Amino acid sequence: MMEEVEKLCDRLELASLQCLNETLTSSTKEVGKAALEKQIEEINEQIRKEKEEAEARMRQASKNAEKSTGGSGSGSKNWSEDDLQLLIKAVNLFPAGTNSRWEVIANYMNIHSSSGVKRTAKDVISKAKSLQKLDPHQKDDVNRKAFDKFKKEHGVVPQSDNATPSERFEGPCMDFTPWTTEEQKLLEQALKTYPVNTPERWEKIAEAVPGRTKKDCMKRYKVVDFFRVYRFHCHLIATCYIVSTLILSPN
């Protein structure tokens, strides 16, 4: 039940939560329970549709990325969805400043990829550039697929002592795409990993959040406390009413 309450708090606006709470408090236990279950069912259906749409766009993005690279040789083709996810993960595990960055990324892919295709530094650079050329929605879907695996590890982004300039895997402009739950988790983890006294803190934080720039992260940080308080109050209101209505109310 608490997991479903969390979904309601994350998905519903405050007005919708208040409306649900009014239904719970002004109706019988059976009616309130039915209203709650209906709302949860609608949220789960919405999540399911979003997942299907994201997967469909992910497949299209993969096809478009394949067309944009073209060329010959095993390194310029046969990029599966798993390999694309692995590339995005490697790019963020080995950020700008890593010595021989693209050679390291290519080696990482050759070790962890199950496709059997050997990649060179030139191959991964070409594919990374082609992903950068995708429109924001396609790029977001490619990244979103990688988040599901990346967020489970919550690894600290490696750093290099003798850093040299290297190409960064992000666009120069601010991304106005809505933040996903996975991105929010990665941002919060990065804020903990890199405290305020960390040199080039926001650059490191941006490296830990795939697809987001320094400006994106700084802007999000300004409102993250607001959203945290917002979710806390929503959670408190919803939990109190649900517990009192469905558990403590007499039959």
TrEMBL record:
<dbReference type="GO" id="GO:0043022">
    <property type="term" value="F:ribosome binding"/>
</dbReference>
<keyword id="KW-0539">Nucleus</keyword>
<keyword id="KW-0677">Repeat</keyword>
<dbReference type="GO" id="GO:0005829">
    <property type="term" value="C:cytosol"/>
</dbReference>
<feature type="domain" description="HTH myb-type">
    <location>
        <begin position="178"/>
        <end position="229"/>
    </location>
</feature>
<dbReference type="GO" id="GO:0006450">
    <property type="term" value="P:regulation of translational fidelity"/>
</dbReference>
<feature type="domain" description="SANT">
    <location>
        <begin position="176"/>
        <end position="229"/>
    </location>
</feature>
<dbReference type="Pfam" id="PF23082">
    <property type="entry name" value="Myb_DNA-binding_2"/>
</dbReference>
<dbReference type="InterPro" id="IPR017884">
    <property type="entry name" value="SANT_dom"/>
</dbReference>
<protein>
    <recommendedName>
        <fullName>Zuotin-related factor 1</fullName>
    </recommendedName>
</protein>
<feature type="region of interest" description="Disordered">
    <location>
        <begin position="47"/>
        <end position="78"/>
    </location>
</feature>
<dbReference type="InterPro" id="IPR017930">
    <property type="entry name" value="Myb_dom"/>
</dbReference>
<feature type="domain" description="Myb-like">
    <location>
        <begin position="171"/>
        <end position="222"/>
    </location>
</feature>
<feature type="compositionally biased region" description="Basic and acidic residues">
    <location>
        <begin position="47"/>
        <end position="58"/>
    </location>
</feature>
<keyword id="KW-0143">Chaperone</keyword>
<dbReference type="GO" id="GO:0051083">
    <property type="term" value="P:'de novo' cotranslational protein folding"/>
</dbReference>
<dbReference type="InterPro" id="IPR009057">
    <property type="entry name" value="Homeodomain-like_sf"/>
</dbReference>
<dbReference type="GO" id="GO:0030544">
    <property type="term" value="F:Hsp70 protein binding"/>
</dbReference>
<dbReference type="InterPro" id="IPR001005">
    <property type="entry name" value="SANT/Myb"/>
</dbReference>
<dbReference type="InterPro" id="IPR044634">
    <property type="entry name" value="Zuotin/DnaJC2"/>
</dbReference>
